[in-house]
Automatic annotation (TrEMBL):
Residues 253-273, 638-671 are annotated as: Disordered. ATP binds at K367. It catalyses: L-threonyl-[protein] + ATP = O-phospho-L-threonyl-[protein] + ADP + H(+); L-seryl-[protein] + ATP = O-phospho-L-seryl-[protein] + ADP + H(+). It comes from the Eukaryota. It is found in: Membrane. Residues 339-625 form the Protein kinase domain. Residues 26-131, 137-246 form the Gnk2-homologous domain. Keywords: ATP-binding, Glycoprotein, Kinase, Membrane, Nucleotide-binding, Phosphoprotein, Receptor, Repeat, Serine/threonine-protein kinase, Signal, Transferase, Transmembrane, Transmembrane helix. GO terms for biological process: response to oxidative stress. PROSITE patterns: GNK2, PROTEIN_KINASE_ATP, PROTEIN_KINASE_DOM, PROTEIN_KINASE_ST. This is Cysteine-rich receptor-like protein kinase 29. It is a single-pass membrane protein. One of its GO terms (molecular function) is protein serine/threonine kinase activity.
Length: 671
């Protein structure tokens, strides 16, 4: 039972919002403690993380419905992801990826939970019980528009007819989509329309879908009487109606029976779309709950995109966001104790990184970029805004920036356990990383790279993935860092070229070194090298086995061909119970470093290989730079491109391999 004092406070908050006209934004979630809880790092927790991180990676799905399971017996996790029928595949995957991050934050230990993001464009739910093909009506949520219709009788009648017609169309859909949207005339005095959509999870039968939608429609008078808009959300079905057009025209699927919605009349072409300014009331109606809480919020404004073609001072929202990310130079100077050597964490081609502490006690890492960049302030800010949008648990988060004179500073979250190379290449410290920890790091890097390649707002190629750019947090979770050389490409672009090859030898793909061609597959090559390093515990450039020294790729391939791949494994990993998993990782690593880039798997496929042991792996071909003797196979200098800035491993005496780095955060390809 919720205390009366709490109820009173919530009602006061509601009234104050309504009176003042302010609004708030809320996700709609339900964390079910009645179905049990899990403990952190338990088998169920790991299965859940694996399933959520790979749910939206199935790029062959273009109809917005994902239903997958992972695990066995009581630790099996079942998950459903459903995007609204008008949401495009790329936007759908981004929505589900954001949901996967958000739901585990809002419901940190519940075995069953569901979430509708505040955009209303996707639903994500998971459970340890069977949820596929089962019509579930609880919990429920109402979202009501506070504005009322002027011709209530005609509006209600038109809405009722529209919803029932849409129910017939949606319920007759196939196993990919049960969705329908259309409009109806709501007033004869002047042309006023009511727009509506209905949707079920496609795993329901036609009868179950009809039953669910009919129940929802019957609730309209009690939740949204005389309102010009509203939503009713249930786990298995949902509806929405508005007086303005809020959905996009949906391309028909093959054999789709859904009739296309007619285009709105010209007089309504400027009505508010999804990101309208209408205020609505959210009502949480959980079955068996004794309290209904109402709060007001404004629907999320349509997301802005940023590019170099739009100066930052042309959009007030851009200015506001940029200002919120900009740090005062004196604040950073004080936080780092005037960039003292005692606070220096490292230094590379980009400049130095310093540890700092803000006045609120938050720890930060400050990257002080080298001088000499030709990039203007506006472009620098726009690229910061782009990178700041990248938020994933396996990426180091950019907190902001500072521009003052020739000073260009990037402020990142502080990650306390240094970088992966600090552990994995140290004879003593590598013993701290058992196989469970190393496998966790491998999968975390995979998730972060998958996000960059497929699930982020932009497709990003890192170009310098290596052990020293994998930072470890307090729980040894990996975070990909250093986007100083990252390239943003079009979402449908498969590769690009540059006359400036930057990166670190040993991790760079052959097509990138020799031709300047980079793609997601060049990142896959780097990942494969990194994977073999984690398994072996040695650097790619100097793999030592007894008295023999050769590069890691040559050694791994030779031992694989000889059937003695176990000799690649770090001797500190002496547990025979994990040998099959280790061998599988060596196999995946060799697939990633194949010379022909078309033979290398995508990051989504790598995730499946790591997660599903029933998936058979293809036989790898000879890796790039394979040496048929024990001599180094990597060239000491480049034979292509006069402006290359790549460095060989032999050219530096520093403790970790470093990369010469362009000063910009990214090189943006217009979208």
């Amino acid at each position: 039972m919720i205390p009366m004092a709490a109820i009173f406070c919530m009602l006061v908050l509601l009234l104050s919002c309504l009176i003042s006209g302010t609004s708030a934004q809320y996700n709609t979630q339900y964390c079910d403690n009645s179905k049990g809880n899990y403990t952190i790092n338990s088998t169920y927790h790991n299965n859940l993380n694996t399933l959520l991180s790979t749910l939206s990676s199935h790029t062959e799905i273009n109809y917005g419905f994902y239903n997958f399971s992972y695990g066995q017996n009581s630790d099996k996790v079942n998950a459903i992801g459903l995007c609204r029928g008008d949401v495009k595949p790329d936007e759908c995957r981004r929505c589900l990826n954001d949901s996967a991050v958000t739901i585990t934050q809002l419901c940190p230990n519940q075995k069953e939970a569901l979430l509708w993001l505040k955009t209303g464009k996707c639903l994500l739910r998971y459970s340890n019980r069977t949820i596929f093909g089962v019509m579930q009506y609880s919990p429920g949520f109402y979202l009501k528009n506070v504005n009322n219709v002027t011709d209530a009788d005609n509006f209600i009648q038109a809405l009722s007819n529209l919803m029932r017609n849409l129910t017939v169309v949606a319920a007759s859909g196939d196993s990919r989509r049960k969705y329908a949207a259309d409009r109806a005339i709501a007033s004869n005095f002047k042309t006023v329309y009511v727009y509506g959509l209905v949707q079920c999870t496609p795993d329901l039968s036609e009868i179950a879908c009809s039953s669910c939608l009919e129940k929802v429609i019957s609730e309209i008078p009690s939740c949204c009487v005389n309102a010009i808009g509203g939503r009713i959300l249930r786990p298995s079905c949902n509806i929405r109606f508005e007086s303005d057009l809020f959905y996009d025209q949906t391309p028909k699927l093959d054999s789709d029976v859904t009739a296309p919605s007619p285009s709105p009349p010209s007089s309504l072409n400027n009505t508010s779309p999804e990101g309208s300014n209408n205020t609505v009331i959210v009502v949480i109606a959980v079955v068996l709950s004794t309290v209904v809480v109402a709060v007001s919020f404004k629907e999320e404004e349509g997301k802005k995109t940023f590019s170099r073609q739009v100066p930052i001072n042309q959009d007030d929202d851009d200015i506001e966001i940029a200002q919120s990310l900009q740090f005062d130079f004196d604040t950073i100077r004080v936080a780092t104790e005037d960039f003292s050597d005692s606070n220096k964490l490292g230094e590379g081609g980009f400049g130095a990184v310093y540890k700092g502490r803000l006045p609120n006690e938050q720890m930060i890492a400050v990257k002080r970029l080298s001088s000499g960049s030709s990039q203007g302030d506006t472009e620098f800010k726009n690229e910061v805004l782009l990178v700041a949008k990248l938020q994933h648990r396996n990426l180091v988060r950019l907190l902001g920036f500072c521009l003052e004179g020739r000073e260009r500073l990037l402020v990142y979250e502080f990650v306390p356990n240094k970088s992966l190379d600090y552990f994995i290449f140290d004879p003593a410290k590598k013993a701290l990383l058992d196989w469970a920890m190393r496998y966790k790091i491998i999968k975390g890097i995979s998730r972060g790279l998958l996000y960059l390649h497929e699930d982020s707002l932009l497709r990003i190629i890192h170009r310098d993935l290596k052990a020293s750019n994998i930072l470890l947090d307090e729980e040894m979770n990996p975070k990909i860092a250093d986007f100083g050389m990252a390239r943003l490409v079009l979402l449908d672009q498969t590769h690009a070229n540059t006359d400036r090859v930057v990166g670190t030898y040993g991790y760079m793909a052959p097509e990138y070194i020799t031709q300047g061609q980079f793609s997601v597959k060049s990142d896959i090559f780097s990942f494969g090298v990194l994977l073999l390093e984690i398994v072996s515990g040695q650097k790619n450039s100097s793999f030592r086995h007894g008295e023999n020294v050769e590069d890691l790729l040559s050694f791994a391939w030779r031992k694989w061909r000889e059937g003695t791949a176990v000799n690649i494994v770090d001797p500190s990993l002496n547990n025979n119970s994990i040998i099959n998993e280790v061998m599988r990782c060596i196999h995946i690593g060799l697939l990633c470093v194949q010379e022909n880039l078309t033979d290398r798997p995508t990051m989504a496929t790598v995730m499946l290989m790591l997660s599903s042991y029933s998936l058979s792996l293809p036989i790898p071909s000879e890796p790039a730079f394979y040496a048929h003797s024990t001599t180094r196979s990597l060239p000491a200098t480049l034979s292509w491109g006069h402006s290359s800035r790549a460095t060989t491993n032999e050219s530096t005496n520093k403790s970790a391999q470093e990369s010469e780095n362009e000063n910009s955060i990214t090189e943006l390809y217009p979208r």
